[in-house]
C-alpha cells in the first residue's frame, strides 16, 4: 500500500501549529480592519495574461515560476503567484473605482503559488495577507500602509524586523535613469543572462545577489539621484510621515523588488532570523498597473506580508503567541446515561460561548481523564451513574485537582461564572 505525501515545496498546516498561523493572519488583518480596509476574495486562478501583463513579462515570477494550465475549454489560466493584479482586476470589474469614494481600500488573505526551488522559507504554496489602496496618489496612504504592517509585526512581539525603503521614480524620471543605468551596466564584465537582463530589466541587475556582480556595481547610477522634483517631494513626505509615526526605516537605494509594476515608493520588511529568504513582506506604489491591465489611470499602493515567513521569524525569536485555549471544559462521561447527559451539557456550554469538548468512543475513566488533560481544558466535568442519580455532575479543576458536585441544571451558569471570574483568554 502506498501513502501520499504533500507535493514538493508544500506543507500541511495542522494543530497545534496551525493555531499560530491563524493568529498571525489575524494580527495582520486587525490593523487593516481598523483602517477602513474591506475584505476581498478573488479566485485562486486567473487568466495567464493578467499576470504576464501585470507582474511583467521579464520577471522571474512570470517567466519561470507560474503554474499554468490550459483548461478543456481552451482557457489559459495560472494559479495566482501574487494578489495585487487579481485584486485590482476585481475592483475594476466591479467598477468599485467609479463609486466616487477613492481610494478603494481592500485586504485579502490566502494561498499563492510559485514554482520556485524549495528551501527554508521558500515554498511553492505559501500564504500572504495583503492590502491594496486603489485610486489615490497621496504620500499619507503609502505611509499608512507601511505603519499598518509595522504595527502588525509589533503586535506579534517581533523585534528583529527592519524596514527597507526606496523610491523607483515614475514615468517622468525613470526612463532617463534606466538609460543611464544601462549605459553603466553595458561596460561591465557580466555573463550572457545578465547582459540580456540589462536590455529588458536593468534595475533588476542592481538586486543581483552575487558578490562578483555587486563588486562591479560600485559607482552605478542610483534612482534616488535621478528622481524628478515631484518624486523627490513625494518620497520626502512619506519619510517624514513614517518618522512622525515612530517607524524606523533604512534607505536602500538598491531595493528593486521582483515585480515590474512598482513606481515611486517601494519597501520591504526583512528579518535576520530567516537565512537567505529574509523578506517577511513587501510592497509599494503601482501607479501604472491599472492601465497595463486595461483600466483607467488609478494610482495605487499596497503590500503583501508572508504568513509562513512571519511564523518562522516568530520561531527564530523564540516567541510563543498567547493563544486562546482551544478547549476550556472537557466532559468525561462514565456510562451511557452520563454520555447522554454530558452531551447536552456540552452543547449548552458551547451555545453559551464556552469552548467545550467531550470524551468520545466510550473511553474508561483513565483514558478519558488523559484526554481531558491533553485538551488543555481548565475544568473537567465527570459524571457516573451515582452522580446522575443525585442530579449532580462533578466539576473538577484540572489545575488544582479540586472537585465538587454541581447540580446539572446549575452547571452552565456555574461554569460560565467561573471562567469569567478567572479570566480565560476566551472569556
Ligand atoms: P512579494 O514580495 O513577491 O510581493 O511577496 C510578498 C511576501 O510574500 C514576501 O515578502 C514573502 O514573505 C512572501 N513570499 C513570496 N514568495 C514566497 C515563497 N515562495 N514562499 C514563502 N513566502 C513567499 C507581492 O506578492 C506583491 N503582490 C506585494 C504587493 C501588494 N505590492 C503591492 N501590493
Write a structural description.
This protein is an alpha+beta fold and 427 residues long. The protein folds into two domains: 17-173 and 227-316, Bira Bifunctional Protein, Domain 2 (BirA Bifunctional Protein, domain 2), CATH 3.30.930; 329-422, Anticodon-binding domain (Rossmann fold, 3-Layer(aba) Sandwich), CATH 3.40.50. It is built from 16 helices and 16 strands. The chain has an eight-stranded mixed β-sheet, sandwiched between helices. It has a five-stranded mixed β-sheet with strand order 13-12-14-15-16, sandwiched between helices. The protein has a three-stranded antiparallel β-sheet with strand order 2-4-3. The longest helix has 18 residues, at 17-34. The mean pLDDT is 95. Bound molecules: histidyl-adenosine monophosphate. Residues 82-84, 114, 116, 122-123, 126, 128, 130, 132, 258-259, 279-284, 286, 302-304, 306, 308-309 line the site of histidyl-adenosine monophosphate (HAM).
Amino acid at each position: 500500500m502506498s501513502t501520499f505525501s504533500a507535493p514538493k515545496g508544500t506543507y500541511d498546516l495542522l494543530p497545534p501549529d496551525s493555531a499560530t498561523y491563524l493568529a498571525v493572519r489575524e494580527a495582520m488583518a486587525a490593523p487593516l480592519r481598523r483602517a477602513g480596509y474591506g475584505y476581498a476574495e478573488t479566485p485562486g486562478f486567473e487568466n495567464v495574461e493578467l499576470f504576464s501583463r501585470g507582474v511583467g513579462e521579464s520577471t522571474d515570477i512570470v517567466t519561470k515560476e507560474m503554474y499554468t494550465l490550459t483548461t478543456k475549454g481552451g482557457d489559459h489560466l495560472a494559479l495566482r503567484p501574487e494578489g495585487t493584479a487579481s485584486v485590482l482586476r476585481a475592483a475594476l470589474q466591479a467598477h468599485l473605482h467609479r463609486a466616487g469614494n477613492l481610494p478603494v481600500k481592500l485586504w485579502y488573505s490566502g494561498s499563492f503559488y510559485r514554482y520556485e526551488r524549495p528551501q527554508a522559507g521558500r515554498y511553492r504554496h505559501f500564504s500572504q495577507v495583503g492590502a491594496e489602496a486603489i485610486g489615490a496618489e497621496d504620500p499619507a496612504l503609502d505611509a499608512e500602509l507601511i505603519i499598518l504592517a509595522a504595527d502588525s509585526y509589533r503586535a506579534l512581539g517581533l523585534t528583529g524586523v527592519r524596514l527597507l525603503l526606496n523610491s523607483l521614480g515614475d514615468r517622468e524620471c525613470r526612463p532617463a535613469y534606466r538609460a543611464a543605468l544601462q549605459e553603466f551596466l553595458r561596460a561591465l564584465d557580466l555573463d550572457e543572462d545578465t547582459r540580456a537582463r540589462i536590455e529588458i530589466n536593468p534595475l533588476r541587475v542592481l538586486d543581483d545577489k552575487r558578490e562578483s556582480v555587486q563588486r562591479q556595481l560600485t559607482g552605478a547610477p542610483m534612482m534616488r539621484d535621478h528622481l524628478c522634483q515631484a518624486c523627490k517631494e513625494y518620497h520626502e513626505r512619506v519619510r517624514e510621515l513614517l518618522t512622525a509615526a515612530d517607524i524606523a526605516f533604512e534607505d536602500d537605494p538598491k531595493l528593486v523588488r521582483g515585480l515590474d509594476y512598482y513606481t515611486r515608493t517601494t519597501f520591504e520588511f526583512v528579518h535576520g532570523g530567516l537565512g537567505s529568504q529574509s523578506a517577511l513582506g513587501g510592497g509599494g506604489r503601482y501607479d501604472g498597473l491599472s492601465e497595463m491591465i486595461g483600466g483607467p489611470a488609478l494610482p495605487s499602493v499596497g503590500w503583501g506580508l508572508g504568513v509562513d515567513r512571519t511564523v518562522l521569524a516568530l520561531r527564530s525569536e523564540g516567541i510563543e503567541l498567547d493563544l486562546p485555549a482551544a478547549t476550556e471544559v472537557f466532559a468525561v462521561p462514565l456510562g451511557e446515561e452520563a454520555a447522554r447527559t454530558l452531551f447536552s451539557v456540552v452543547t449548552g456550554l458551547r451555545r453559551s460561548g464556552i469552548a467545550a469538548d467531550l470524551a468520545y468512543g466510550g473511553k474508561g475513566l483513565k483514558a478519558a481523564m488523559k484526554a481531558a488533560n491533553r485538551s488543555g481544558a481548565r475544568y473537567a466535568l465527570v459524571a457516573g451513574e451515582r452522580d446522575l442519580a443525585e442530579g449532580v455532575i462533578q466539576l473538577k479543576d484540572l489545575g488544582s485537582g479540586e472537585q465538587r458536585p454541581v447540580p446539572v441544571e446549575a452547571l452552565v451558569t456555574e461554569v460560565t461564572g467561573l471562567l469569567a471570574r478567572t479570566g480565560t483568554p476566551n472569556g
